[in-house]
Design goal:
46% of the residues lie in helices and 15% in strands. The chain has 191 residues and is α/β, with parallel strands linked by helices. The chain has a 7-stranded parallel sheet with strand order 4-3-2-1-5-6-7, with helices on both faces. α5 crosses α6 (131-143). The longest helix has 18 residues, at 31-48.
Length: 191
C-alpha cells in the first residue's frame, strides 16, 4: 500500500500527543520537555537522511517537523485524514499545516490514520503518549510493524500487555536515538 511519490527512503514516522497541555498535566512531564524532545528527534531523523512522516495537526508532530526542517531534512510526508471522529480542530490544523510538507497523503479517515502511518513507515519514533499514540502503537501489531523506538523520558509507562505484542525498544536519550535509528535503518532493504 505504498502510493507515495517521493523517492526518499526509508520513512520514519514521528508519533506522539497533539494536545501537549492536557497530556503534560496528566503525566506530570513538563510540556517544554515534550516540545524540546520532539524538536531534537526531528533533527536526528533529518540527519539520518530518512523522510519524516507525520500527521501535521499540533504538538509533537509540529515540533518534530520544525527540528527536521531546520536540520535540512530531505522530505516531509504529511498524512491528512478527514472524516470520522477527531478533535474539532484536528482536520483544519492538518490542512493548514500541510503547506509545510513536501508531500501530502490523504483519502482516508481519522479511523484509518493509525493503520496508514504504520503501513507506510519503516520505523516509528514515539515521543509521549496519548490515546491516538497508543492506537498507532497497537496498530503495529495488526499491520506487521514497523518497529518503534520510544523515548522513555517522555512517557510514564506502557502496559506490559502492549509490550508483549509489539516491537518497542525504549531509548534513554536523543543521543542514544541516533545510534539506535542507524542500526535499525541500516537493516532496511533499499526499495
Amino acid at each position: 500500500m505504498d502510493d507515495l511519490r517521493h523517492v526518499v527512503r526509508p520513512i520514519v514516522g514521528l508519533i506522539g500527543p497533539t494536545n501537549l497541555p492536557k497530556i503534560s498535566t496528566a503525566s506530570g512531564i513538563p510540556e517544554v520537555h515534550y516540545r524540546d524532545t520532539a524538536y531534537r528527534v526531528g533533527r536526528v531523523i533529518a540527519h539520518s537522511g530518512a523522510a519524516l512522516a507525520v500527521v501535521p495537526d499540533r504538538g509533537v508532530a509540529l515540533f518534530g517537523m520544525q527540528g527536521y526542517r531546520e536540520a535540512e531534512g530531505p522530505w516531509i510526508v504529511g498524512l491528512t485524514p478527514s472524516g470520522g471522529p477527531s478533535e474539532s480542530v484536528a482536520t483544519a490544523n492538518c490542512s493548514n499545516n500541510a503547506t509545510e510538507c513536501n508531500e501530502i497523503v490523504g483519502g482516508f479517515t481519522w479511523h484509518h490514520q493509525h493503520a496508514r502511518i504504520c503501513e507506510m513507515c519503516n520505523l516509528l519514533v514515539c515521543v509521549g503518549l496519548s490515546c491516538g499514540t497508543l492506537a498507532e502503537i497497537a496498530w503495529t501489531k495488526w499491520v506487521g510493524g514497523p518497529r518503534i523506538l520510544a523515548m522513555r523520558n517522555t512517557l510514564t509507562a506502557l502496559p506490559k500487555e502492549i509490550l508483549a505484542e509489539t516491537n518497542i525498544t525504549f531509548v534513554e536519550s536523543v543521543g542514544d536515538l541516533a545510534e539506535r535509528m542507524s542500526s535499525v535503518l541500516s537493516r532496511i532493504p533499499a526499495s
